[in-house]
Amino acid sequence: LGPEERALYEALRRNAMQVMGRNTSQPAHNQLKILAEIMKLRRACCHPRLVMEGSTLSSSKLQAFEELVDELLDNRHKALVFSQFVGHLMIIRELLDKKGINYHYLDGSTPVVQRKKAVNLFQAGDGDLFLISLKAGGTGLNLTAADYVIHMDPWWNPAAENQAVSRAHRIGQDKQVFVYRFITENSIEEKIQKLKERKSSLADKFINSNNPFQAITQEEII
Asked: In whole angstroms, how far apart are CA 193 and each of 112, 141, 154, 202, 212?
């Protein structure tokens, strides 16, 4: 993160710790508060506008993404771009529109007919990037025209990320598929990655539990 982004993130982090401290006597209510604060921190890692509407602060992650995309397109590669946050994809669309980059897009609200059309066009060679919300892109897509997959933000469940990667790495793919994951250094994103590594059963807990935070201790949340 840049200096201004870091200051915003730190303010959100301190507020999250205060919220946790105020609600320790109400465990169920506390979990909802904690989840909301964690979501703010995750959004702040992507772009300041996702937590502070109208912000003019720049995003280090968006800048790094732009540099990667320029390099990929210069070398005639095609990429799938995933994010859990539709708002994040909207910001990326603004960037691509400004740069005149041809892309396709779908999220959970995209009609089936439009979804099929976009997939067919991309597979036929139309468009350099395909922007997809992580949940919408988990199943039913065959996008072997892409040889790069970009995850803009980490999700709790690594299986969902792997499903997204398999949209490009499927039968019929004749190229190597490379995967980039954007992880914000010294942030909750980095901690999520370390937590997943330390807790190999974390994905199962989030898949099989309606209340996954019951499976994580207060110390781990902090």
From this structure: 33, 26, 8, 11, 16
The model's pLDDT over 60-99, given as tens digits with 9 standing for 90+, comes to 999 999 999 999 999 999 999 999 999 999 999 999 999 9
The whole-model pTM stands at 0.82
Closest C-alpha to 130, from 76, 168, 74, 162: 168
Closest Cα to residue 147, out of 118, 101, 181, 179? Answer: 179
Instruction: Look up residue 126 and give its amino acid.
Output: D
Q: Whole-angstrom distance between the N-terminal and C-terminal Cα of the chain?
A: 21
Q: What is the Cα gyration radius of the chain?
A: 18
CA dihedral angle for residue 117, residue 122, residue 128, residue 131, rounded to 10 degrees:
50
